[in-house]
C-alpha cells in the first residue's frame, strides 16, 4: 500500500499549531485540574503535602481498623411464631436428678433466655429456685458434647447405633446382664421407653439411685404402711412443723413446692394474724433451720435419739407405750411435743436422715398425731426420689464380680456422685460394654466406650409425673444446638424402633393421660391445651389415715450409736450447687450460699468452740486449711466457722471437687462423695465415727460476699418482733426514728430539702416481706439471667466485687449488749437468722442522683432511679453515697475479656452469649450499674397494655426477682393503681399529695436519713415466746 | 523609705548587697547542674517512669487493678487527690494573703511555694483523671455544648464544683506565678551568654524593660491577682470538703468540714514548703535568704493550723456523741478502735501531737527537727484523708456490706507517679527558674539588712 501523507488533526488548535496544544500534547489531562493548586509550575506545595498526608493517614488508619463482621442473617422465610424483638413463651418442665419444676421458657428470636415458674402448676405454683433459673445457661455450655463419641473419638449416629446394637445383641445372645443406671426418672414415657428396651433385651435391669438419696424413707414407709413410696407433704396445712435435719426449704425432695406451702403460713396481714411454728433439730445450719422459730443444734449421732424422745413424749400424752432409749436432753423438744399434741392433725414431722429406724419413728409420730389424714398424703405418692440404695450397691457388687456385661448410664454420673464411685470406676474395667448419655465427658462418661449425648432439656420433648395424678409436658424451645440426640430416641433406636420420640410421647399420652381425663374429647385439642398449659392435674385421692404397722421398739433399739469421741461429719447440699450436676454453671458457682455467703468453694463448717479448740480463727473470710480424715480417705480443705453448727459436728457440702465437669467447675472445692458411708444398705450422709480433723496451719481465703455477720442490733436495718406482740399491736417491732428540731421532735420525712416528685402516671414500688423470705436466692439468679449480670469469678469475689443486683443479706443475732460495739460483731453460738433481700431502693430523695457530676443517674417520672450507662464516667461517687451499698461498678471489662472467659461464659463465649437478654445492655468497663426494677419488663408491660388500650395492671409487669420467688416474698406493682396488689397490701392512702402507708409492718430501711425509698420492707415476726432472745 | 526598727532581725543575712542577690540566685540558673541535682533528677525520673507504667496499666486494664471494692469506692485515689490539693494551698496563701498583709518575710519563699502549688495541683489533677472509670470521657464533666441535646452537667454535684474550683485555682496560680517570674526572667536574659538561654529567657520575659511604668503595672497586677487568689485559698478546699460534707455517709456528713479542711490544707502546705525549702536552701546554699527566722515563722503557722486541725478532730467526736445519731457515733468509734485504728492513731500522732513540739523554741529553730516534723505532718495529713475516706466508707450503714480495703501495687504505683511528676517538675524548676524572687528580695535587702 502506498504510504499516505495525509495528516489528520484533532482540531483546529492542532492545525494552527498553537502554543497551548504543543505544550499539553503529552499530558493526560490538558485542562487545569484542581489537584495541583499551584497551577502550571508543577510540584506540590507544602499545603498539598499536608493535605495529602492528612488524607493518607486518615485513610490508612481507617483501613487498618477492620470493621467487625456482624453475622446478622435475616430470615429468608420468617417463622410464623417468631417476631424479632417479641418474646415467645413456652410451657415446659424442668426435671433434673428428680428435682421438678413446672416452667415457662422465654425465648427471643428462637433462643431460650429466661426461665419463669409456671403459675398453672398446682405443685410449684409459679415458684422456681436458683438451680431452675440457672439451667438456661447450662444449655449454652460450650463444654457439652457436640456429637456422639466412641472410645473418645467422634462417630456419627448411624455408626454408633450399629455398633451399640451389635454389642447389645451380642450380650443378649449370650444371656449377659445389661443394666440401665439412672437418677430418678419423673417421665412415665421414658419409663415406657426403658420397658421397650427391656423387652428387646430381657436381661436388662433398670437401676435407679439418687446422689441425695432418701431411699431409707421409702423403705420405712414400706415397713410402716406397706407402701414403698414417698408421700406428698402439705406444709401449708401444718400449724406445727418439726424437722429433724430435713432441709425442706433448701434441698429436701421438693423445695420449691414446700417453700410455696410453707410461705402460706408465714403471711401476715390485717385479716390474718396466725402463723405456723417451726422447730428444727439439726447439726448444720440449713436454710430451713435458719427460718425456724426454734432451732436446736443436735449432733448427728443424737438425732435419732431426739426423734425417739419426741416419740416417747407424744406416746406418753397419747397413753401409748413408750420405747426404751438412752437418756438425753434436747432443748425445745418438750415444747415441740406440746405444740404437736395441741395441733394434732395440723402438724408435720419430717426427718432428712437416710436411716430407716429414724424414718420409722417419724412415721410413728406422724401416725400418732393423725397427720396422715391431713398434712401427709400417702395416696398421692411423689416420684421425685426413686433411688434404691440397695439396688445400686448390688450393681457395684455385680460389676466388681464381673457379672455385668453391659451398662448404660442414662444421664447420671455415679462415678462422681455415688458413695461407691471409686469402686464403680475400677469395676467398670470388667464391664464389656459401657455407654453414657451424658451431655459432657464427665467422670462416668469418660470411662464409657460410647457416649450418646442427650439433648439439654430445653431441646427435648419430655413429660413428667411428679406425683400421682399430676402430669406435665416438656417441649423443645430451640432446635438442638449440637448433633446430640434425645436419649429416649436413642433407647428406641437401640430397641429396634424409630427415633421419633415425639410421636411416641404423643401416643403414650393418648393411651394414658388422655384416657384418664374427661374434660376434652379430642386428643389434638387436649394435647395442644396441655402443651400450652404445661401441666394437667387429674387429681389424686385425698389424704386418708392409714394404719401404722411399723415396729417402733425395734426401730428405737436399732438407732445407730456413736462409737468414738471424734467429730462427726455431716454431708449436706448447698442450695445453689446441690448434688453438683449443674456444677459447670458459673451462675450457681457464684451464687452466695444463703447461709455462709460463700461462693466458688466448699469448706468444712465448724462451730466456734471447735475452732477455738483447734486454734483456728476466721476473720474477714481468712481461714486455715485442715486435713479431714475419714477412714482411710483424707482431704485438705478450708474451714468456715459456722454459728449454729452443733458442736462436735462438722459439715461438708457435696457437689464440689468436680474433675471432668468443665472449666468452670473443675478443681473448685473438694469432693465429699467418697466420704459417704453405707449403713444397713443405705447411703449414710452422717459419718459419726472415724472422723479426724487436723489443722495444717496453712492460710486460705474463702470467697464470701458478706464478711460481717450481725446487724449490730441496728433497728433501722432489721425490724422484728414476735407473733404474740404482733397480735396485740400490728406495728410491733417497728422502729420510729425522730429528728430533734428547734421546734421539737419530728418524723424524718417531715424535714426535707427536697420538694419531692410527682408521679402523674405510674409509681412503681416493691414490698419485701422479711417474714416470708427464706433466703433461697432464686431471685439473685433470676435477676442475673434477666439483667445480664456478669460473673466475676473467685478472685474478684475475694476482692469484694461481685456484681449481683439483688443480694440477700443474712444476719445472725448477737448475744452481746446493745452498747458493746465490739461484742455485737460476734454472732451468737446458735443465732437467730434473718434474711434481707437488698436491691436498689429507688429512693425518691436519692443520694446518688445529686452527686453524679454528669447526671448519669436520674429519677424517672415513674419513681425509678435510672442509670444511664453510656453517660457514666465512673467517678463512683454515687456508690459511695449510696447508704444501701447496692451499686455495682464495672471494675474491668467483663465481656469479651480473656481474663474472665473461664467464668463469665455468658459474655465471652459465642455460644454463651446466646443467653443474654437482648433488651438489656451489656455494660462496659468503667460504668456503674444497679437494679433497674426490670425497667425493660415495665416498658414491655406498658406496651402490652397500650396495645390493648387499657391501663397497665399487675399481670402485665413484675420484676424477675418477684416472679422467681417461691415464697412470694416480693410484691411489685404500681402504687398509683388503687387496684394493684401492692397498693392493697400497703393500704396506700393519698393525703395532701403524699402517699400514706397504712400497713403497720411496712418500713423503710434507714428511715432516719429520709431518702424515702420506693422499696418497703415488712417486719419479721417470729412465732416464738417473748423473752426468749435466743432459741 | 520605710522606717525599720533597729532591733528587728534582718530578713536577709550575710550583708548581702543587691548585686549579691542577683549573683547568688542567677548562678544556679547559669551554672552547670550539680551532681546532686542530676542524681535527684535521675531518681525522680525513675520513679516517674515506674509510676507512668502503673498509671498506664490502670488506664488500660481498668481501675479494678486497684484495691477498691463494692463498699470502698474511693481510697488512695481521692486520698492522694485531696492531699495534693491541700499541699497546693500554701503557695497561694503565702503569695496572696501574706502579700496583702504585707508580710515581707514571704519574699524569700513565695516563688518556690507557688511553684510547689502548681505542681501539686497538677498531681492532684492526675488523680481526678485516674479515678474515673472512663477517663477518656473526662470532658463530660465540663459544661460543654454537645450534640446530645440538652445534656448538661449536674450542677448539684460537688464533683462539678470541684472541677470549677480546681481549674480556677490552677489558672490563677499559674498566672500569678508567671507574672512574678517576668522581672527575674528579664534579669537572667540580660545576663545570659548562650544563644539558647538568650532566646528562651528573652521569650519568657516577654519584653520586660524595667521601666518605672512597667514596675507600677507589675505591682498593680500582683495586687489584683492577690485579691483574686485570696478567696480561692478558702474556696478550693471548702469545695473539696463538700465532696464529703454533702453526702449522707456517717463520718462524711458533717458541717465542720470546710474550715477543718482549709486549716488542714494550710497545715500540710506549709509543711511541704518547709520540706522543700530546707532542701533547696541547703543544696543551693541560700542560707542567707531563707533564714532560721523564715523557718521559725513557718513552724509557727504549722503549730497554729495543726492546733486548729486538732480541735476539729475533737469537735467531730463531741458532735458525734452530742448528735445522738447511732450511725455517726459508730463511725467515730470505728475510726478509733475499728480495724483501721492504726491509721487513725497515726493521724492523731502526726497531726495533733507532733506539731505541739514546736512550742519549744529550740525545736522550732532546729533545722533537723523542722525537716523531720514537716515530713511527719504530711504523712499525718495523708492519713487524715485516708481515715476520712476509707474508714467512713468501709463500715457505713449496712453491716452486710462492710469490707476492708487494702492497696495493690497499682495504688502505690499511681501514688508514686505523682511523686515522680512532682519532683521532676520541681527539680527542673529549681534548675532553670530563679528559685527566689530576686526583684522582691532586692527591695528588702537594704531596708531590713542595714541599720542606717
TrEMBL record, chain A:
Domain of life: Bacteria
Alphabetical list of Pfam families matching this protein: Fer4_11
Domain 4Fe-4S ferredoxin-type: 764-794, 831-862, 863-892
Residues spanning the signal sequence: none
PROSITE patterns linked to this entry: 4FE4S_FER_2, TAT
Transmembrane regions: none
Record-linked SUPFAM superfamilies: 4Fe-4S ferredoxins (SSF54862), Formate dehydrogenase/DMSO reductase, domains 1-3 (SSF53706)
Identification of the protein by name: TAT-variant-translocated molybdopterin oxidoreductase
From TrEMBL, chain B:
Keyword Glycoprotein recorded: no
Bilayer topology term: Multi-pass membrane protein
Subcellular location: Cell membrane
Swiss-Prot/TrEMBL keywords: Cell membrane, Membrane, Transmembrane, Transmembrane helix
One Pfam match: NrfD
Main location: membrane
TM regions (residue ranges): 37-61, 81-101, 113-133, 159-181, 220-240, 260-279, 300-322, 342-359, 371-395, 415-436
Family: Belongs to the NrfD family.
Name used for this protein in its record: Polysulfide reductase NrfD
Species whose genome carries this gene: Shiella aurantiaca
Gene: nrfD
Amino acid at each position: 500500500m502506498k504510504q499516505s501523507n495525509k495528516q489528520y488533526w484533532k482540531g483546529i488548535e492542532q492545525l494552527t499549531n498553537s502554543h497551548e496544544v504543543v505544550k499539553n500534547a503529552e499530558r493526560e489531562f490538558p485542562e487545569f485540574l484542581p489537584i495541583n493548586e499551584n497551577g502550571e509550575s508543577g510540584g506540590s506545595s507544602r499545603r498539598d503535602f499536608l493535605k495529602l498526608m492528612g488524607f493518607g493517614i486518615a485513610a490508612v488508619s481507617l483501613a487498618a481498623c477492620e470493621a467487625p463482621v456482624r453475622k446478622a442473617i435475616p430470615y429468608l422465610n420468617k417463622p410464623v411464631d417468631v417476631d424479632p424483638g417479641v418474646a415467645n413463651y413456652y410451657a415446659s418442665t424442668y426435671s433434673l436428678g428428680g428435682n421438678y419444676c413446672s416452667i415457662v421458657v422465654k425465648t427471643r428470636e428462637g433462643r431460650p433466655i429466661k426461665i419463669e415458674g409456671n403459675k398453672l402448676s398446682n405443685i410449684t405454683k409459679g415458684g422456681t429456685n436458683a438451680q431452675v433459673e440457672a439451667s438456661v445457661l447450662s444449655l449454652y455450655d460450650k463444654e457439652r458434647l457436640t456429637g456422639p463419641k466412641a472410645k473418645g473419638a467422634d462417630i456419627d449416629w448411624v455408626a454408633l447405633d450399629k455398633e451399640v446394637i451389635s454389642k447389645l445383641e451380642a450380650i443378649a445372645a449370650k444371656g449377659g446382664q445389661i443394666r440401665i443406671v439412672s437418677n430418678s426418672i419423673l417421665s412415665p414415657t421414658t419409663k415406657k421407653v426403658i420397658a421397650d428396651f427391656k423387652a428387646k433385651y430381657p436381661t436388662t435391669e433398670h437401676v435407679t439411685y439418687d446422689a441425695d438419696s432418701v431411699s431409707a424413707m421409702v423403705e420405712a414407709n414400706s415397713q410402716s404402711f406397706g407402701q414403698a413410696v414417698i408421700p406428698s407433704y402439705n406444709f401449708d396445712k401444718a400449724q406445727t412443723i418439726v424437722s429433724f435435719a430435713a432441709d425442706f426449704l433448701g434441698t429436701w425432695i421438693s423445695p420449691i413446692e414446700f417453700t410455696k406451702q410453707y410461705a402460706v403460713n408465714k403471711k401476715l396481714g390485717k385479716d390474718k394474724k396466725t402463723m405456723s411454728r417451726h422447730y428444727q433439730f439439726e447439726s448444720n445450719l440449713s436454710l430451713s433451720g435458719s427460718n425456724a422459730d426454734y432451732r436446736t443444734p443436735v449432733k448427728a449421732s443424737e438425732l435419732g435419739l431426739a426423734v425417739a424422745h419426741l416419740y416417747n413424749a407424744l406416746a406418753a400424752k397419747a397413753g401409748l407405750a413408750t420405747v426404751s432409749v438412752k437418756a438425753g436432753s434436747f432443748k425445745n423438744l418438750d415444747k415441740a411435743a406440746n405444740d404437736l399434741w395441741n395441733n394434732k392433725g395440723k402438724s408435720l414431722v419430717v426427718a432428712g436422715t437416710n436411716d430407716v429406724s429414724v424414718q420409722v419413728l417419724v412415721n410413728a409420730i406422724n401416725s400418732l398425731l393423725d397427720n396422715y389424714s391431713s398434712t401427709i398424703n400417702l395416696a398421692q405418692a411423689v416420684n421425685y426420689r426413686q433411688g434404691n440404695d440397695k439396688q445400686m450397691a448390688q450393681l457395684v457388687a455385680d460389676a466388681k464380680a464381673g457379672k455385668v456385661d453391659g451398662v448404660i448410664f442414662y444421664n447420671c454420673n455415679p462415678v462422681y456422685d455415688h458413695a461407691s464411685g471409686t469402686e464403680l470406676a475400677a469395676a467398670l474395667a470388667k464391664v464389656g460394654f459401657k455407654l453414657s448419655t451424658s451431655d459432657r465427658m464427665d467422670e462416668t462418661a469418660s470411662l464409657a466406650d460410647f457416649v450418646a449425648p442427650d439433648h439439654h432439656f430445653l431441646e427435648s420433648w419430655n413429660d413428667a409425673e411428679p406425683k400421682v395424678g399430676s402430669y406435665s409436658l416438656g417441649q423443645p424451645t430451640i432446635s438442638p444446638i449440637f448433633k446430640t440426640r434425645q436419649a429416649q430416641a436413642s433407647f428406641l433406636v437401640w430397641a429396634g424402633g424409630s427415633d421419633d420420640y415425639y410421636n411416641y410421647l404423643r401416643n403414650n399420652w393418648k393411651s394414658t393421660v388422655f384416657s384418664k381425663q374427661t374434660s376434652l374429647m379430642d386428643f389434638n385439642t387436649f394435647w395442644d391445651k396441655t402443651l400450652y398449659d404445661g401441666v394437667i392435674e387429674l387429681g389424686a385421692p385425698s389424704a386418708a389415715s392409714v394404719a401404722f404397722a411399723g415396729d417402733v421398739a425395734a426401730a428405737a433399739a436399732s438407732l445407730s450409736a456413736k462409737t468414738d469421741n471424734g467429730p462427726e461429719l455431716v454431708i449436706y447440699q448447698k442450695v445453689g450447687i446441690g448434688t453438683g450436676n449443674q456444677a459447670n454453671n458459673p451462675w450457681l458457682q457464684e451464687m452466695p450460699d444463703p447461709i455462709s455467703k460463700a461462693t466458688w468453694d466448699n469448706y468444712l463448717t465448724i462451730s466456734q468452740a471447735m475452732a477455738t479448740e483447734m486454734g483456728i480463727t476466721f476473720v474477714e473470710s481468712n481461714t486455715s486449711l485442715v486435713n479431714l480424715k475419714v477412714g482411710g480417705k483424707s482431704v485438705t480443705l478450708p474451714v468456715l466457722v459456722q454459728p449454729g453448727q452443733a458442736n462436735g459436728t462438722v459439715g461438708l457440702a457435696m457437689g464440689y471437687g468436680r474433675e471432668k465437669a468443665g472449666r468452670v467447675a473443675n478443681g473448685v472445692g473438694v469432693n465429699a462423695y467418697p466420704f459417704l458411708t453405707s449403713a444397713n444398705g443405705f447411703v449414710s450422709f452422717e459419718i459419726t465415727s472415724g472422723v479426724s480433723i487436723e489443722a495444717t496451719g496453712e492460710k486460705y481465703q474463702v470467697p464470701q460476699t458478706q464478711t460481717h455477720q450481725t446487724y449490730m442490733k441496728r433497728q433501722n436495718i432489721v425490724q422484728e418482733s414476735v407473733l404474740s406482740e404482733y397480735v396485740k399491736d400490728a406495728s410491733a417491732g417497728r422502729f420510729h426514728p425522730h429528728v430533734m428540731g428547734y421546734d421539737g421532735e419530728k418524723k424524718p420525712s417531715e424535714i426535707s430539702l427536697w420538694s419531692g416528685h410527682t408521679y402523674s402516671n405510674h409509681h412503681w414500688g416493691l414490698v419485701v416481706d422479711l417474714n416470708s423470705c427464706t433466703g433461697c436466692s432464686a431471685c439473685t439468679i433470676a435477676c442475673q439471667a434477666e439483667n445480664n449480670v456478669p460473673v466475676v469469678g473467685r478472685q474478684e469475689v475475694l476482692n469484694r466485687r461481685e456484681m449481683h443486683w439483688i443480694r440477700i443479706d443474712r444476719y445472725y443475732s448477737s448475744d452481746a449488749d446493745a452498747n458493746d460495739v465490739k461484742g455485737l460483731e460476734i454472732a451468737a453460738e446458735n443465732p437467730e437468722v434473718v434474711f434481707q433481700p437488698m436491691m436498689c431502693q429507688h429512693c425518691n430523695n436519692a443520694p446518688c442522683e445529686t452527686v453524679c457530676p454528669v447526671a448519669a443517674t436520674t429519677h424517672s417520672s415513674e419513681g425509678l432511679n435510672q442509670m444511664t450507662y453510656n453517660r457514666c464516667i465512673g467517678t463512683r461517687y454515687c456508690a459511695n453515697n449510696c447508704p444501701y451499698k447496692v451499686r455495682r461498678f464495672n471494675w474491668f471489662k467483663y465481656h469479651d475479656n480473656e481474663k474472665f472467659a473461664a467464668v463469665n461464659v455468658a459474655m465471652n463465649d459465642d455460644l454463651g452469649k446466646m443467653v443474654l437478654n437482648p433488651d438489656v445492655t451489656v455494660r462496659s468497663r468503667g460504668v456503674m450499674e444497679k437494679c433497674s426494677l426490670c425497667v425493660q419488663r415495665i416498658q414491655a408491660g406498658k406496651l402490652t397494655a397500650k396495645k390493648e388500650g387499657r391501663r397497665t395492671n399487675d399481670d402485665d409487669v413484675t420484676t424477675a426477682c418477684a416472679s422467681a420467688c417461691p415464697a412470694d416474698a416480693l410484691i411489685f406493682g404500681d402504687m398509683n393503681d388503687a387496684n394493684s396488689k401492692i397498693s392493697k397490701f400497703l393500704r396506700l392512702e393519698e393525703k395532701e399529695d403524699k402517699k400514706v402507708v397504712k400497713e403497720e409492718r411496712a418500713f423503710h430501711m434507714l428511715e432516719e436519713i429520709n431518702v424515702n425509698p420506693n422499696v418497703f420492707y415488712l417486719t419479721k415476726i417470729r412465732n416464738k415466746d417473748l423473752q426468749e432472745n435466743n432459741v | 523609705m520605710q522606717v525599720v526598727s533597729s532591733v528587728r532581725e534582718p530578713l536577709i543575712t550575710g550583708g548581702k548587697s543587691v548585686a549579691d542577690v542577683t549573683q547568688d540566685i542567677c548562678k544556679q540558673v547559669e551554672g552547670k547542674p550539680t551532681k546532686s541535682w542530676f542524681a535527684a533528677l535521675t531518681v525522680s525520673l525513675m520513679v516517674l517512669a515506674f509510676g507512668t507504667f502503673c498509671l498506664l496499666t490502670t488506664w488500660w486494664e481498668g481501675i479494678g487493678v486497684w484495691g477498691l471494692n463494692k463498699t470502698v469506692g474511693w481510697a488512695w485515689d481521692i486520698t492522694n487527690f485531696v492531699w495534693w490539693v491541700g499541699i497546693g494551698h500554701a503557695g497561694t496563701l503565702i503569695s496572696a494573703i501574706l502579700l496583702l498583709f504585707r508580710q515581707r518575710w514571704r519574699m524569700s519563699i513565695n516563688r518556690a511555694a507557688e511553684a510547689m502549688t502548681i505542681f501539686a495541683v497538677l498531681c492532684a489533677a492526675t488523680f481526678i483523671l485516674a479515678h474515673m472509670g472512663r477517663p477518656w470521657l473526662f470532658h463530660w464533666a465540663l459544661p460543654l455544648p454537645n450534640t446530645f441535646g440538652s445534656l448538661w452537667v449536674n450542677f448539684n454535684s460537688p464533683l462539678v464544683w470541684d472541677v470549677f474550683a480546681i481549674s480556677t485555682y490552677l489558672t490563677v496560680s499559674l498566672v500569678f506565678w508567671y507574672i512574678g517570674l517576668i522581672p527575674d526572667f528579664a534579669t537572667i536574659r540580660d545576663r545570659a551568654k548562650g544563644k539558647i538561654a538568650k532566646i528562651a529567657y528573652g521569650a519568657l520575659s516577654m519584653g520586660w524593660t524595667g521601666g518605672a511604668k512597667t514596675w507600677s503595672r507589675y505591682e498593680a497586677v500582683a495586687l489584683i491577682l492577690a485579691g483574686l487568689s485570696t478567696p480561692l485559698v478558702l474556696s478550693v478546699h471548702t469545695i473539696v470538703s463538700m465532696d464529703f460534707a454533702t453526702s449522707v455517709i456517717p463520718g462524711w456528713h458533717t458541717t465542720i468540714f470546710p474550715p477543718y479542711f482549709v486549716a488542714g490544707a494550710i497545715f500540710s502546705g506549709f509543711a511541704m514548703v518547709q520540706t522543700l525549702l530546707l532542701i533547696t536552701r541547703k543544696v543551693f546554699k541560700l542560707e542567707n535568704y531563707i533564714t532560721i527566722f523564715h523557718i521559725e515563722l513557718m513552724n509557727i503557722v504549722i503549730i497554729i493550723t495543726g492546733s486548729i486541725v486538732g480541735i476539729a478532730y475533737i469537735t467531730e467526736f463531741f458532735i458525734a456523741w452530742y448528735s445522738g445519731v447511732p450511725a455517726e457515733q459508730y463511725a467515730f468509734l470505728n475510726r478509733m478502735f475499728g480495724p483501721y485504728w492504726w491509721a487513725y492513731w497515726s493521724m492523731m500522732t502526726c497531726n495533733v501531737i507532733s506539731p505541739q513540739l514546736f512550742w519549744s523554741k529550740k525545736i522550732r529553730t532546729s533545722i533537723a527537727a523542722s525537716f523531720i516534723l514537716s515530713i511527719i505532718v504530711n504523712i499525718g495529713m495523708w492519713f487524715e484523708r485516708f481515715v476520712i475516706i476509707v474508714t467512713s466508707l468501709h463500715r457505713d450503714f449496712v453491716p452486710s456490706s462492710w469490707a476492708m480495703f487494702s492497696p495493690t501495687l497499682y495504688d502505690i504505683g499511681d501514688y508514686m507517679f505523682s511523686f515522680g511528676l512532682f519532683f521532676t517538675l520541681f527539680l527542673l524548676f529549681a534548675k532553670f527558674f530563679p528559685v527566689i524572687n530576686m526583684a522582691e528580695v532586692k527591695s528588702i535587702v537594704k531596708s531590713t539588712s542595714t541599720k542606717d
